[in-house]
């Protein structure tokens, strides 16, 4: 019996090691190159359990409750990433285990230091803007004079009414939409002023009768299939929709527009929950993703820009030359970023969004 007990005790470290050969990842839908996961598992022997979400609100609720079981998450820098840091929900990164993090663009990493001073809780995964996905042929057929390079085509009721027959879709996310409307109205995107919020609500309610769908996961399929012709969505989702429409050869052409009044610039961050059960595996996974060849494959697959300059020679030429994917400096001058607002203001925004959804 004593020998049996000793033998079992000797196996315990092996069992624990086997359990640690797992990484639980929680990421946005349609937001990774599947081959990257396969390569990581083959090279490391670590099994990837991969779940997806479709809104920042879903991610934040899961992590705020604690004990999510996830090892790697991908929050947007503002407001979710910054808010999770303040709540103590994210671990400090072990940079010694992330050698490829040194290859990230220093200018872009500097931009996210307003959310994460010193860049100690996360590294950039992908980035982009929030703008308009357009089927311009359908829009012009319904409203030949509509300003397709402006938020007016969506937020002015006279234009929204004209183009509504071909379908309008908006992200079901107060976090993404309300700052955009504030910017459009010439207000501070981070405003907590009640009058500014009332102006947002008035603008949204005026176009509510013309909105066909509110879609948490963006509008990739609806745009690609031609069932919607105007969508407020993420840049990469629209560019993915354009690629799918072209592949389908059904006569649907999709264009992404960063409106001239300004588009929200965001960064999705690779981060580790404070209570992650497999932190070493998490660091291994993050470092693998930051390899230039892997990151190039991800950009080629999902059509969002990354923050690893050494990946550019391996990024498809059509993406590198597309200013909707890699905006010029002139384009970026029109972009804006947002900060998290106080809890009371967040509740007020939630009420506005609920009123808008209810119509």
Q: What's the arrangement of secondary structure elements?
A:
Layout: H1 2-19, E1 22-28, H2 34-44, E2 47-53, H3 56-64, E3 72-73, H4 77-86, H5 106-111, E4 123-134, H6 136-142, H7 152-155, H8 157-163, E5 168-171, H9 174-184, H10 194-207, E6 213-215, H11 220-225, E7 230-234, H12 235-248, E8 255-257, E9 263-270, H13 279-289, H14 292-302, H15 317-320, H16 329-332, E10 335-336, H17 343-358
Parallel strand pairs: 1-2, 1-3, 5-6, 5-7, 9-10
Antiparallel strand pairs: 4-7, 4-8, 4-9
Helix pairs in contact: 10-17
Number of domains: 2
CATH homologous superfamily designation of the largest domain: Periplasmic binding protein-like II
What does the overall shape look like? globular
What's the gyration radius in Å? 22 Å
Number of alpha- plus pi-helical segments: 17
Describe the structure.
It is a single chain. 45% of the residues lie in helices and 15% in strands. The protein starts with a helix and ends with a helix. It is an alpha/beta fold. It folds into two domains: 21-128 and 266-326, Periplasmic binding protein-like II (D-Maltodextrin-Binding Protein, domain 2), CATH 3.40.190; 129-264 and 337-358, D-Maltodextrin-Binding Protein, domain 2 (3-Layer(aba) Sandwich), CATH 3.40.190.10. The protein has helices spanning 2-19, 34-44, 56-64, 77-86, 106-111, 136-142, 152-155, 157-163, 174-184, 194-207, 220-225, 235-248, 279-289, 292-302, 317-320, 329-332, 343-358, and strands spanning 22-28, 47-53, 72-73, 123-134, 168-171, 213-215, 230-234, 255-257, 263-270, 335-336. The strands form two sheets. Strands 4, 5, 6, 7, 8, 9 and 10 form a seven-stranded mixed sheet that branches. A three-stranded parallel sheet has the order 2-1-3. Helix 10 (194-207) packs parallel to helix 17 (343-358). Helix 2 links the parallel strand 1 (22-28) and strand 2. Residues 1-19 have low confidence and may be disordered. The chain is globular. It has 17 helices and ten strands.
């Amino acid at each position: 019996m004593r020998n049996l007990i000793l033998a079992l005790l000797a196996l315990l470290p092996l069992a624990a090691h086997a359990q640690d050969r797992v990484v639980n990842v929680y990421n946005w839908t349609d937001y990774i190159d599947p081959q990257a996961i396969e390569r990581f598992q083959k090279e490391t022997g670590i099994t990837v359990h991969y779940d997806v979400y479709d809104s920042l609100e879903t991610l934040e609720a899961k992590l705020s409750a604690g004990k999510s079981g996830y090892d790697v998450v991908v929050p947007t820098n503002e407001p979710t990433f910054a808010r999770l840091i303040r709540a103590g929900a994210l671990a400090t990164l072990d940079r010694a285990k992330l050698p490829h993090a040194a290859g990230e663009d220093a200018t872009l990493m500097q931009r996210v230091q307003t959310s994460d001073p010193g860049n100690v809780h996360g590294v950039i995964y992908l980035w982009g803007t929030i703008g308009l996905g357009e089927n311009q042929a359908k829009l012009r057929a319904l409203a030949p004079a509509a300003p397709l390079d402006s938020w007016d085509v969506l937020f002015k009721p006279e234009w929204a009414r004209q183009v509504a027959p071909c379908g309008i879709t908006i992200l079901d996310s107060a976090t993404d939409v309300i700052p955009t409307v504030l910017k459009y109205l010439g207000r501070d995107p981070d405003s907590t002023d009640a009058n500014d919020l009332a102006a947002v609500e008035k603008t949204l309610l005026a176009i509510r009768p013309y909105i066909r769908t509110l879609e948490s996961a963006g509008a990739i399929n609806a745009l690609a299939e031609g069932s919607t012709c105007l969508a407020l969505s993420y840049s990469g989702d629209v560019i993915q929709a354009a690629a799918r429409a072209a592949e389908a050869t059904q006569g649907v052409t999709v264009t992404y527009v960063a409106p001239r009044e300004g588009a929200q610039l965001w960064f999705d961050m690779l981060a580790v929950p404070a209570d992650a059960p497999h932190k070493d595996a998490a660091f291994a996974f993050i470092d693998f993703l930051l390899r230039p060849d892997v990151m190039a494959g991800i950009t080629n697959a999902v059509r969002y820009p990354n923050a690893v300059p050494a990946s550019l020679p391996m990024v498809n030429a059509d993406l590198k030359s597309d200013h909707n994917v890699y905006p010029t400096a002139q384009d970026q001058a029109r972009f804006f970023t947002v900060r998290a607002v106080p809890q009371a203001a967040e509740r007020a925004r939630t009420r506005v969004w609920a009123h808008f959804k209810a119509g």
